[in-house]
């Protein structure tokens, strides 16, 4: 681990309140279905990943927006309690905070619908202000729940400041085009998100590798592919690295991808080897499946190291 300078990640992304319904199955069109449990849980991919990175030991700043409603206040308070720097969180007047409606099935699978709300309210001036602060960032972590026009501006800003970008495809992968990858250092989709961006199925390993290799022509340095129970793949111009998954019995998979990507960001920040980084990310993602909700399920560094049977970061 490089201890010569403060290690800080800038997470830019969505901040939502998750409205979580546990259901026996998804309702058909026109059907009324009785659910089993309801919770409000702080979420949003940006906020989730900021909390996860903080719990994994990074200093984290979050750039995002909430409304001036009660959900917004709850979010900011919770993020601060988790150790996230919230100076970059903008409060948009007269706009509701973002929400996500999450239906969780008995085996932990989920279906999610989200409403951007205040997440779409980031101004150019506010986005630029994050670079005027004293902190120096080792990585910027993005997702696709923000408007893609905002993401493009953020990527250009990061590149101009010499900060590498890790882009998680989660959020609106169907709107993402290969051109949106320009300036991205590491692109991290899951299999369905990879399908969406390349326009065809990539369910087997060989087709997934070929699809990832095809994305490198758009300037991405590497593709880090989340494959769930099949583990993870790292594809760059020189190599393909495979890392098996940890076996767990999932309780709720809502934010496993967020934990995984934050784990990878922390690993890259610490300049871990790629095989070790993938193993670290796999452990973080697996642990997130063992608890309900989004931010509450984000794992701590000690638990990740225990799963990896390591005493400290390598």
Characteristic key phrases:
single chain, 314 residues, alpha/beta, UDP-N-acetylmuramoyl-L-alanine:D-glutamate ligase, ten-stranded mixed beta sheet, four-stranded mixed beta sheet, 9 helices, disordered N terminus
How would you explain this protein's 3D organization?
The strands form two sheets. Strands 1, 4, 5, 6, 9, 10, 11, 12, 13 and 14 form a ten-stranded mixed β-sheet that branches. Strands 3-2-7-8 form a four-stranded mixed β-sheet. A hairpin with a 3-residue loop joins strand 13 and strand 14 (240-243). It has helices at residues 45-55, 70-81, 124-129, 148-160, 191-198, 205-215, 256-269, 274-288, 301-308; strands spanning 8-12, 16-22, 37-43, 59-67, 84-85, 89-92, 98-104, 110-115, 139-142, 165-168, 186-188, 222-226, 232-236, 240-243. The protein is α/β, with parallel strands linked by helices and 314 residues long. It has one domain (8-14, 45-97, 117-308): 3-Layer(aba) Sandwich (UDP-N-acetylmuramoyl-L-alanine:D-glutamate ligase). The longest helix is centred in the C-terminal third of the chain and has 15 residues, at 274-288. Helix 1 packs across helix 7 and helix 8 (274-288) packs across helix 9 (301-308).
Run of helices and strands:
EEEHEHEEEEHEHEEHHEEEHHH
Number of strands: 14
Strand content: 15-25%
Overall radius of gyration: 18 Å
What average pLDDT do the residues reach?
A: 92
Q: Which CATH first-tier class would you pick?
A: Alpha Beta
CATH superfamily: Ribokinase
Class by SSE composition: alpha/beta
Shape: globular
Number of domains: 1
Instruction: List the total number of helices.
Output: 9
CATH topology-level fold name: UDP-N-acetylmuramoyl-L-alanine:D-glutamate ligase
């Amino acid at each position: 681990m490089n201890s010569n300078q403060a290690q800080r990640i800038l997470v830019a992304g969505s901040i939502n309140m998750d409205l979580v319904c546990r259901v026996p199955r998804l309702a058909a069109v026109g059907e009324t279905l009785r659910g089993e449990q309801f919770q409000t849980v702080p979420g949003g991919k940006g906020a989730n990943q900021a909390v996860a990175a903080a719990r994994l030991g990074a200093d984290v700043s979050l750039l995002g927006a909430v409304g001036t409603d009660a959900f917004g206040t709850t979010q900011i308070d919770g993020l601060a309690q988790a150790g996230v720097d919230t100076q970059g969180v903008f409060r948009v007047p007269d706009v509701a905070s973002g929400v996500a409606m999450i239906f969780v099935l008995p085996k932990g699978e989920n279906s999610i619908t989200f409403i951007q709300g205040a997440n779409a309210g980031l101004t150019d001036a506010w986005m630029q202000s994050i670079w005027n602060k004293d902190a120096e960032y080792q990585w910027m972590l993005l997702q696709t729940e923000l408007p893609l026009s905002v993401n493009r501006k953020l990527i250009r800003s990061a590149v101009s400041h010499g900060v590498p970008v890790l882009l998680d495809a989660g959020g609106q992968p169907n709107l993402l085009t290969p051109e949106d990858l320009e300036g991205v250092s590491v692109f991290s989709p899951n299999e369905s998100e990879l399908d969406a961006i390349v326009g065809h199925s990539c369910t087997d390993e060989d087709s997934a590798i070929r699809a990832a290799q095809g994305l490198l022509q758009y300037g991405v340095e590497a593709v880090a592919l989340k494959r769930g129970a099949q583990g993870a793949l790292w594809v760059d111009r020189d190599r393909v690295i495979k890392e098996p998954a940890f076996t767990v019995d999932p309780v709720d998979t809502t934010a496993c991808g967020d934990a995984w990507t934050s784990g990878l960001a922390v690993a890259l920040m610490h300049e871990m080897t790629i095989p070790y980084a993938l193993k670290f990310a796999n452990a973080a993602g697996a642990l997130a499946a063992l608890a309900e909700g989004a931010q509450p399920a984000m794992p701590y560094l000690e638990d990740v190291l225990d799963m990896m049977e390591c005493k400290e970061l390598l």
